[in-house]
Amino acid sequence: MTETVGIQAAERNGSPQGRLRMRRIYTTEGVHPYDEVTWEHRDVVMTNWRDGSVNFEQRGVEFPDFWSVNATNIVTSKYFRGAVGTAVREHSLRQLIDRVVKSYVAAGVEHKYFATPGDAEIFEHELTWMLLHQVFSFNSPVWFNVGTTSPQQVSACFILAVDDTMDSILNWYKEEGLIFKGGSGAGLNLSRIRSSKELLSSGGTASGPVSFMRGADASAGTIKSGGATRRAAKMVVLDVDHPDVEEFIETKAREEEKIRVLRDAGFDMDLGGSDITSVQYQNANNSVRVSDEFMRAVETGGRFGLRSRTTGEVIEQVEAKDLFRKLAKAAWECADPGIQYDDTINDWHTCPESGRITASNPCSEYMHLDNSSCNLASLNLLKFLGEDGRFDAETFAKAVEVIITAMDISICFADFPTEPIAETTRKFRQLGIGYANLGALLMATGHAYDSEGGRALAASITSLMTGTAYRRSAELAGVVGPFEGYARNAESQQRVMRKHAAANDLVRTYHANDAAVQKVATREWQAALAIGARNGWRNAQASVLAPTGTIGLMMDCDTTGIEPDLALVKFKKLVGGGSMQIVNQTVPRALKSLGYQDEQVEAIVEHIAEHGHVVDAPGLRREHYEVFDCAMGERSIAPTGHVRMMAAVQPFLSGAISKTVNMPEAATVEEVEEIYFQGWKLGLKALAIYRDNCKVGQPLSAGKGANNGGKAEPEKVVEYRPVRKRLPKKRPSQTVSFTVGGAEGYLHAGSYPDDGLGEIFVKLGKQGSTLAGVMDAFSMSISVGLQYGIPLEFYVSKFQNLRFEPAGMTDDPDVRIATSVLDYLFRRLALDYLPYDKRAQLGIFTADERSAQVAADYGSTEVDLEALRTTIDTAPRATTTETKPEPKITEAHSSTELLELHLGKAADAPLCMTCGTKMRPAGSCYLCEGCGSTSGCS
Predict the structure, then answer these.
(1) Is the previous residue joined to 806 through a cis bond, with omega within 30 degrees of 0?
(2) Domain-by-domain residue ranges, the chain?
(3) Which of 242, 495, 690, 931 lies in the 20 to 30 Å Cα band around 554?
(4) 238 in the Ramachandran plot: left (φ > 0), alpha (ψ -120 to 50) or beta?
(5) Where does the sequence pass through the membrane (predicted)?
(6) Among the options 139, 189, 286, 361, which is catalytic?
């Protein structure tokens, strides 16, 4: 815990007046945080699974034993500084944390934040402990830059400004390029640029903002292709009353149609393809800034005026509903533009006397003055959930105090890409504390994401976070002074603080957990108002909800930002290489919180591992299905559920929320309109949607056109003729008796002498019965297919999970429940004849393997994972007259690809430009689980 020492208290404690005294939260006096953990050395070797090339290699790195392989890989490859293979290269997490933390402590001492050297030491130890134990993380620029010889840039989010002059427009290109070069993103509003319907001072007609977007888009694409590790992240905003708004709305939809036409004409229009560069406006997110006036006109069916940029007079009247329909239709077609609610944003603006909020960063969570920036940090919410299922609100508040103090200190030494950004940021000191793992937290506590209880807990935690942050900001103002722009905006800042506090009082709680958190939040807001009235505030903004992409992986979070779980199954990387499919560890924790016994939990988890969802899981009550609803899959959360969650937490954020509302492919334009309309009604600041499969361009597979200048080779027509490889007269075989749902039968399987299944016979039903005859014919067709070279794993993927009677319990300890006889037979064959890696992709494990996985997940025993993988492998079983790759089941290398296997269709996500893995959604951006690359803020 920390406290600000007043004059009398300072004199009693012998400390300087008004400086911070620190108390320990996690650490013990006399014991360094590094001495409390067990360290181990690991080798980090990261490859592109598509071509086997090594992307990164560093051996002998040092990490705590409880850090996952994935977190180790991400931090080593992304954040360790120094040339790989040299003595100056960082090789331990200690070095990384010390480099950052000691820089913060030194700046805090230099700028007189702490009362005594002992308080600075406590601050150092607490910050170190929380980073070491993945309680929170700073945003990526901190890890990239702080403590190095590079400029000390700590911000990931930037907002630029552009005026209606050619000098300003060209300067926009330059500033944006510098920000992209550094790996960050920026947003801006183009509404000051006069429309193509207005005249220039020379008498000619203006080009309009959309034309200038072409140059900026080309610049972003060029800088990205010049060696950046991720696509340029940018946001372009246009006000709804701009005369060119209709052209702006339709820019990306028209380009999407161009992609369709060119693709059908034979051009390479894949993402990253050789011809995709002819498509414009693809490097930015677009958003239309709508006013309350416009939305009321939509609501009432009225007309709305488009205004001159130079005179402000109405130069054209349009039907508001028609314009709104065009906006929704374009979003339905290509996911752009999003929508930003201007009056709501500026109603919560703490500094209106210094200028309006006109734009956001690329991911839409940071919104403040033009030419400003925001540095971010995110807490791992699951770290505050006790074994008893109680969220530790008091410790959470204490952690927020320390983190906000560190974030404010960083502005004292930070560098910025442009002088206007540096000036505004130092004057207003905008911060963006947030969190990750909300979806996992709600599931672990037995709350459905789309439920009143879930929203109440999320709102209470968000309110507590921001209330504590502003209380600490008010205390810092008493130590080192309020932000420079406070005096001019004092009345507005206090008004917004009261709005936050009033919203907190309106939170309706449903359970002891959210009631306890809301109670602490109320205390924090009361203190923030009282101290702020006396001291002012150190920071104009305090909180946002960012995507938490790469840093979410660093903290081993199951879910990013405000998002629910993507799916119930995911990939876990293993020490020594490889990966395995596991059920999210939050699931058994949730089941126990709902009152299920260990045996029931085991059966339900086994069902999820096999099916990817909870529908018809043995013993799971239907009223609990909703707790396990995810962003995608069999039971996906409705779009309105995402909007309601955003609305629950928005009143407690200084900024906004990075989140895209996913909609099914069958969604209509009217449904998109309704989502955008409800966002306005519910008080959101920004909203974007993505309709499944609305994008034409697909990810480019590695190696395409590699030897032909990027052009596709002419297809060669080759006729393949399968050759049957018959079994010898004497061959090894085995017979398995089985029972499924009370029906008894026998499975006879014969193999080639050099290994590999070649025939099956199934006896089921009485001799001469229809069932027996059908099974004989079925067995014959499968056997012939195997002998002609059809892989067993193909049959397993097709026949497992088929559902018909008889079904139910079996007498096989490895396959306890079967949805049909065929489901049992092919899972049994997979266990007997397929190697571990292929079975892992199909989600089929023996009882011993499942027990070992659980033990590995919870650290209860030593597990020989290598022994698990040394199971039966199959040799090639057939030859053909032409060399032809053997057909294979689709492989999965990420949680998104695993979900594709369960859904049976492709997910709309790009391939990572660095390692080739399919990325997953993270807020309004995408995140690569393989190497940590993101398509936006992190």
Answers:
(1) yes
(2) 2-150+385-428+455-481+494-509+520-537, 161-354, 733-869
(3) 690
(4) beta
(5) none
(6) 361
Query: What would the two tokens of residue 611 be?
Result: 């099916």
* Distances in whole angstroms, Cα of residue 9 to Cα of each of 15, 402, 412, 834: 8, 21, 27, 72
Residue 553 in tokens: 């992986």
Query: Which residue type is seen at 262?
Result: L
Q: What contacts 609, CB < 8 A, 6 or more positions away?
A: 569, 581, 582, 583, 843, 845, 850
Residue 79: per-residue pLDDT: 95
DSSP 583: E
Give pLDDT, residue 836: 85
- Nearest Cα neighbor of 495 from 542, 533, 521 is 533
Token pair for residue 640? Answer: 């309105």
State residue 699's pLDDT score.
Answer: 37
CA neighbours within 13 Å on the CB side: how many for 805? 1
Q: Rounded to whole angstroms, how far apart are CA atoms 63 and 67? A: 7
DSSP assignment letter at 51: T
What is the three-class DSSP state of 149? Answer: coil
Classify residue 716 by burial, with Cβ atoms within 10 Å: 0-12, 13-18, 19+: exposed
Residue 110 token pair: 């230099």
Give the list of residues 6+ apart from residue 298 with CB closer than 8 angstroms, or none: 320, 321, 324, 677
Q: Per DSSP, which regions of 653-802 are E strands?
A: 660-663, 686-691, 733-740, 743-751, 757-764
Two structure tokens written together for 116: 């005594």
Question: Hey, what amino acid is at 195?
Answer: S
Tokens of 380: 């791992």
Q: Are 472 and 651 in contact (CB under 8 A)?
A: no
Share of the chain above pLDDT 90, in %: 58
Q: What is the reported pLDDT for 888?
A: 37
User: What CATH number does the domain located at 161-354 have?
Assistant: 3.20.70.20
Distances (CA, A) of 133 to 33, 64, 856: 9, 9, 19
Sequence letter at residue 223: I
What stretches in the chain show pLDDT beneath 70?
Answer: 1-18, 48-52, 182-183, 223-232, 270-273, 572-580, 696-722, 853-911, 913-917, 924, 930, 935-938
Q: What is the pLDDT of residue 890?
A: 46
Going by DSSP bridges, is the β-strand pair 285-290/234-239 parallel, antiparallel, or unpaired?
parallel
167 residue type, one letter = D
| Contact between 371 and 160 (Cβ < 8 Å) | yes
The predicted structure's pLDDT at residue 797: 85
What is the model's pTM? Answer: 0.78
Is 715 marked active-site? no
875-904 burial by CB neighbour count: b if 16+ within 10 A, else e?
eebbeeeeeeeeeebeebbbbbbbbbbbbe
Give me the sign of the Cα torsion angle 316, 322, 326, 327: positive
Buried b (16+ CB within 10 A) or exposed e, 747-768: bebbbbeeebbbbbbbbbbeee
Q: Which of 363, 915, 925, 931 is catalytic?
A: 363
Crossing angle of the two packed helices 452-480 and 393-413, in degrees rounded to 10: 50
Q: Which residue out of 90, 124, 198, 365 is catalytically annotated? A: 365
Q: Residue 861 CB: number of other CB atoms within 10 A?
A: 10
CA dihedral angle for residue 514, residue 517, residue 519, residue 524, rounded to 10 degrees: -150
Query: Is 365 an active-site residue?
Result: yes
In sequence order, the 6+-apart residues with CB closer than 8 A to the CB of 554 are: 71, 74, 75, 79, 134, 137, 932
d(CA 427, CA 420): 11
For residue 368, give the nearest of 158, 533, 525, 174 by alpha carbon: 158
CA dist 216 and 734 (Å) reads 68
DSSP state of 920: E
The H-or-E segment that residue 21 falls in is strand 20-22
- Tokens standing for 513? 């957990």
Query: Hey, what are 480's tokens?
Result: 């080192």
Task: Tell me, yes or no, if 670 is annotated catalytic.
Answer: no
At position 49, the amino acid (one-letter code) is: W
